[in-house]
Amino acid sequence: MFKEVLISGAIVLLGGYRYYIHKLEDIECVSYEVKNSKIPKVFDNFKIVQISDLHNRSFGVDNNILLEKIDTLNPDIVCITGDLIDGANEDFSIALNLIDVLSRKYQVYHKIRRWTKIHISKRRHNRR
Fold first, then answer.
1. Residues 6+ apart with CB under 8 A from 103
2. What is the pLDDT of residues 88-110, one digit of tens each?
3. For the whole model, what pTM was predicted?
């Protein structure tokens, strides 16, 4: 009986761990359409992609999964909000590489908090 309970518990724990790892790799995509007579016509069909709270994670090698998803949305601008980096991790290469790749294709707006070792308050990258 103890052996069956132990095996069942291990299966539940492994299943829960697998689900947790899978959820870490999920990219949630939600679309909103904003209509308001006060919005100038120049913004008709204007697409904004917002990425938030990445905490220095990479979705695929060099964020290729995330970048492919963004490319399929074909945004006019990309806004990076929330925590792009994790304060406990001093290796910012994942985040900086993501900004670099995105800024070559899109106008990118982002803010990195002042407590980091890099000081980027607000920057706009022109689409090339």
1. 125
2. 777 888 888 999 999 999 988 87
3. 0.66
